[in-house]
Design goal:
Elements: H1 9-23, H2 44-72, H3 75-88, H4 90-99, H5 103-118, H6 127-130, H7 140-146, E1 154-157, E2 161-164, H8 165-176, H9 186-203, H10 215-231
Antiparallel strand pairs: 1-2
Helix pairs in contact: 1-2, 1-9, 2-9, 3-9, 4-5, 7-8
């Protein structure tokens, strides 16, 4: 279960904003437009413009910072930072698991939070995973999906990147269920938020090589597929090839093996 990852107040705020732009926005600007519109993306023209805007911020601000962060940060430290912020996401998983009636997953997330916060020293070490105590991340967008809002229109948010109308509606609840929101000191809160997002962006650097073709479409389709997988808890529908009702007729192979 993982979850996504200072300066003066103004500069910190700027870093947070720029960092958020690339957290899920992908790593490059979109190319041409799909020949056939994606039914899940009826606002593609608007989304592409926002995607391009986010990309400019990422390319010239966050990505260089993320590269510098990775260069100067030892791997064990970077892993510890990721573990720390992942552990802070466990209470959100507990809350949303309960809202979805997933009591077992809520208990797992509770156990993970207690173990990693104590034995794992504030979550820097993921001791729970080594003990094979693992579950599924849950957020309020997934909760809305479990409550019946299974499909939603794709929407690229300025600075925040890929989302849907459903997941955008869940953002306030996700924000208020994350512990750093309740830190009174502005510099500490913004500093932790900046570190979290920069660490997340650094973790995406290696994935950029996987993007092929029109980057906007690639990122959109990959994100939507992953999101559907999360909302459905990995159930993507029946595989006809695994069904006893899927029968082949001998005639189906005649043409295939004809000379």
């Amino acid at each position: 279960m993982s979850d996504g990852k200072a300066q003066g107040k103004r500069l910190l705020g700027g870093v947070v904003v720029l960092a958020a732009a690339a957290m899920l926005a992908g790593c490059a600007s979109g190319g041409g437009v799909d020949r056939e519109p994606n039914p899940a993306d009826p606002w593609e023209g608007f989304n592409r413009k926002v995607f391009a805007f986010n990309d400019v911020l990422d390319r010239y601000a966050l990505k260089p910072v993320a590269r510098g962060y990775r260069f100067i940060t030892p791997d064990p430290v970077e892993t510890g930072v990721g573990n720390f912020f992942s552990n802070l996401g466990e209470p959100r998983t507990v809350l949303n698991s309960l809202l979805q009636g997933k009591v077992r997953n809520a208990s797992i997330a509770t156990s993970r939070f207690i173990i990693n916060t104590t034995v794992g020293v504030a979550g820097l070490w993921d001791v729970a995973s080594r003990m094979e105590i693992t579950g599924q991340e849950e957020d309020f967008g997934q909760t809305l999906g479990a409550w019946g809002w299974e499909e939603s229109r794709y929407l690229v948010l300025p600075l925040l990147g890929p989302s849907t109308l459903r997941d955008t509606g869940g953002l306030p609840a996700d924000m208020y269920s994350y512990p750093t929101t309740y830190i009174d000191d502005d510099e500490t809160r913004l500093g932790l938020t900046a570190l979290r997002v920069i660490d997340t962006r650094a973790g995406l650097l290696d994935q950029e090589a996987l993007i092929q073709g029109d980057r906007y479409s690639f990122i959109r389709d990959a994100w939507l597929q992953q999101r559907r997988f999360e909302v459905s808890d990995g159930e993507l529908g029946d595989d006809p090839f695994a069904s006893d009702e899927f029968d082949f007729d001998d005639a189906d192979f005649d043409d295939a093996f004809a000379d």
